[in-house]
Amino acid sequence: MLLHGTSRIDEKGQLEIGGCNAVELAAEFGTPLFVYDEAQIRSKCRAFVTAFQESGLAFQVAYASKAFCTMAMCKLIEEEGLSLDVVSGGELYTALEAGFPAERIHFHGNNKSIEEMEMALDTGIGCFVADNFYELGLLNQLGKERGKQVNVLLRITPGVEAHTHEYISTGQQDSKFGFDMMSGQALEAIQFALNAEALHLLGTHCHIGSQIFETNGFVLTVERVISFLAEAKAKLGFEPAVLNVGGGFGIYYVEGDTPRTPGEYVKAIATTVRRECEEHDLALPELWIEPGRSIVGDAGTTLYRIGSTKEIPGMRKYVAVDGGMTDNLRPALYQAKYEAALANRMLDEAEETVSIAGKCCESGDMLIWDIQLPKVRAGDILAVPSTGAYGYAMANNYNRIARPAVVFVRDGHAELVVEREQLSDLVRLDRLPKRINL
Ligand code: LLP
After folding, report:
1. Which residues have CB under 6 Å of ligand 1?
2. Is 69 a catalytic residue?
3. Which of 291, 307, 335 is the last residue of a domain?
4. Interior CA angle at 16 toward 11 and 22, to 5°?
5. Best residue for ligand 1 mutational test, from 91, 290, 325, 335 (most atoms within 8 Å of Cβ)
6. What is the mean pLDDT of each run of 10 residues along the chain (438 residues)?
7. Helices 71-79, 38-55: crossing angle, 10 deg rounding
8. Which end of the chain is more exposed for a tag (fewer CB within 10 A), N or C?
9. Does the residue 80 lie in any domain?
């Protein structure tokens, strides 16, 4: 198992994260437990910022809060000077409750409700990433009603769909998000925004996918978008102040994963932006990105306690943990792969191949198939790294399982940032209808 950030093996042969012994964390806070290495999150934020500073371009790095959105995380992002991308009233509310400056918030989404738009407008967020004509019309109307100019970026689909290793140049056109560039829709949207009296068009946004290792998908995207913007300049006289190229930078989950560093992604993108703008005679826009996974993904580790095991002779040994698809939906949803180790016996030799099962009443609730571990015992603590992004964020209450607690660790201190859900929380919103309450 690859150790990330400040994770190391301590003198007792146990896993330590942020100077805290993982076995002690499990005992103190219970399991399953999400442990975030605060120094690692901050170092990722700084790596993106430093790379931009070196590029010499004006920039914003907006953390995509969908990857992991809690008040503590928003606060940390604020301290690091980043902006924040939200995609719902819930994420927006979390950020505002944490005191995150509204003007550094960008609001995404393909179907923002009127209530969400009003909330965002009235709190004075930095900009909307407008997804469709319906939204543009509503934003214009709501802006007029308030006598406000609404900052908008137009989400466009450049026809690049990037997957982990390869990119397909046409797929993304068929997407529920954004204005299609190829059919002329995106140009029409620019025209619409320019004519709308309460809209202030900042530029364009695109996002080509997630967990992307190679830089060439981003390079191709920038080339396409800038050539489109040159067309917009020629036809409509519009020159963007902002070019947002989204997120999607990959991280390490398992052997064979080969992510680039934040610096490498930024450099490839920034260099292409400079070159293409020069070639198309466009003024250099501010360059914005929206990393989510690459900021928090490998800073998070989930700790589970091992319980039952089932061995089918000659076939497989199932080892069950006290969590599963309720705290990590990714294996069930995307066949995502993870590494793991026994946090209480990191130096023991691997002796058996087992499969890690969750505790949900569903056969598909498997966290890891065929992993080599020392001989496991009930009570062992299983550590699964790289669960910081889209783990807690997608946690759910299937089987009425309470969601785990979350701690931030740093320099030997652990602080609870999200409490463990209690059984009483699970029935908090339930109401007994009078007719069956006899
Ligand atoms: N910007 C936009 C517009 C996005 O849609 C996303 C992710 C991001 C930024 C951040 O992407 P990142 O840097 O985190 O890759 N639940 C899936 C990932 C869904 C990503 C959705 N959009 C997973 O667990 O892999």
Report:
1. 64, 66-67, 85, 108, 207, 210-211, 246-249, 290-294, 330, 334, 389-390
2. no
3. 291
4. 115
5. 290
6. 96 98 98 98 98 97 98 98 98 98 98 98 98 98 98 94 66 83 94 98 96 94 97 97 97 97 98 98 98 98 98 97 98 97 98 98 97 98 98 98 98 98 98 81
7. 40
8. C
9. no
